[in-house]
Amino acid sequence: MDSLDDFMQTRPPTANRPLLGLTVLVVEDSRFASEALRLLCLRSGARIRRADSLFSAQRHLAVYRPSVVIIDIGLPDGSGVDLIRDLTAARPRVDVVLGTSGDPEGEALARKAGADGFLDKPISNIGFFQSKILEHLPAERQPKGLRVLSDDTVIPDEVALRDDLAAAAVALEDPTDARTLRYLTQFLGGIARSAGDTPLAQETQTLAQLQTDGSAVGSQVARIAAMVQDRIARTAAL
Predict the structure, then answer these.
(1) C-beta of residue 98 within 8 angstroms of C-beta of residue 116
(2) What residues make up the domain containing 25?
(3) Is the entire prediction scored with pTM above 0.85?
(4) What is the pLDDT of residue 10?
(5) How many CA atoms lie within 13 Å of 234's alpha carbon, on the beta-carbon side?
(6) Is residue 36 a part of any domain in this protein?
(7) Do 13 and 107 fall into the same domain?
(8) Number of independent structural domains in the chain
(9) Same domain as 135, residue 196
(10) Which residues, renumbered to this chain, carry the PTM 4-aspartylphosphate (predicted)?
(11) Are the beta carbons of 106 and 99 closer than 8 angstroms?
């Protein structure tokens, strides 16, 4: 056995670590959201693997079959909806496929594609996270005996948030086409909701509406770019 992590995965699930023995593949482009999920898996006993794009996810899935896949709807190289549809149609099937998004329309899209459930961003409550996975697992994978739902929450590292903001700031300098701008809008909206940043979330919603209406977006992009730079400066000071 190569590591403590490998050893832990051979143990049966317990009341305190109900996801022991499970491998969770997180398909998520945000480092901040991924860090929250990493902490949730760690506290729950699950092993985590991360892919930041559809391409990376397919490479992971070609090598092993995880127990659970959590898929963000908005990814840099396409929609997570397509991956949800592929995984839920495949045989043998992954035990649990969950969608996740900060977009209000994300849950409907994920469920229509066949997702077993949905995690609305921000994701921080340990008991809620565990329940969303356990309710779809077969009985033999469930922990034995009574289990008290934890009301604890996780707090992702601010460094991961700064990395996300820095990546967005570079892209906002020259959004090359409408598709790129739509992706950036969704990405920033997810970051804002995960970080509890209501002003930034509202401004990204405004930008999304302008794109839907076919209106000019230049001044709104500039406004959001300035807000992102302000938040980078704040996190750098921490």
Answers:
(1) yes
(2) 4-141
(3) yes
(4) 56
(5) 10
(6) yes
(7) yes
(8) 2
(9) no
(10) 72
(11) yes
Q: Are residues 184 and 99 in the same domain?
A: no
Task: Kindly state whether residues 94 and 177 are assigned to the same domain.
Answer: no
Amino acid identity at 148:
V
Mean pLDDT by runs of 10 across the 238 residues of the chain is: 50 85 97 97 96 97 95 96 97 95 92 97 95 89 72 94 96 85 93 94 96 94 96 82
> What digits encode the pLDDT tens for the residues 96-140?
999 999 888 899 999 999 999 999 999 999 999 999 999 998 877
- Chain centroid to CA 44: how far? 17
CB atoms within 10 A of CB 137: 19
* DSSP per position, 204-224: HHHHHHHHHHT---HHHHHHH
In the chain, the amino acid numbered 18 is P
Structure token pair of residue 216: 């000019």
Q: Pick from 109, 141, 173: which residue ends a domain?
A: 141
